[in-house]
Amino acid sequence: ILLLLRNPKDVATSFYHFNNGLSFLPSYETWDDFFTAFMMKKMPWGCYFEYLSKWNKYADDENVMTITYEELKENPVLGVKNIAAFFGISLTEKELQSVVERSSFQSMKKNSQKTHGSFGNILFRKGAVSDWKNLFSEDQNEKMDKAFEEHIGGTKLGTKLKYEVYCKA
């Protein structure tokens, strides 16, 4: 199992745009309205922190590899090598480069109309790390940090996310 994690602040930012892009999901007039709903666990898919907390009990299983979106963005070649090794797949240098190029956000966004139709524009918006800084107020940032610590701060997944998100930023 490949478990891909992402900074909860960027998850919230992405979900905000995703929700507002799909007519069958609740939309929010403002970021503040969405943030309140997100923090009060009123999302159709549940609470991201509870999701992480549940996955944390499997983080040490030998059949689970955990990687962050931030890791993949920072060093996609190493990320693909590690994923391939985990699944026992050997790649030539040419195959490795092909996977890295074809799985880049830019490539997937470019091909999203073919692969996902009109839904592609909603799924592939920016693909940026730290886009949350464009929406979060200082108070919201502090609330999210507090919730992170309360739910998963001392866990294996929490430590991994904290390192990738805060220590490398």
UniProtKB/TrEMBL annotation:
The EC number(s) this enzyme carries: 2.8.2.-
Superkingdom of origin: Eukaryota
Pfam families for the chain: Sulfotransfer_1
Domain Sulfotransferase: 1-155
InterPro entries: P-loop_NTPase, Sulfotransferase_dom
Gene Ontology MF term list: sulfotransferase activity
Keyword rRNA-binding part of the UniProt annotation: no
Keywords, comma-separated and alphabetical: Transferase
Family assignment from sequence similarity: Belongs to the sulfotransferase 1 family.
Protein name: Sulfotransferase
Organism: Cathartes aura
Lineage of the species this protein comes from: Eukaryota, Metazoa, Chordata, Craniata, Vertebrata
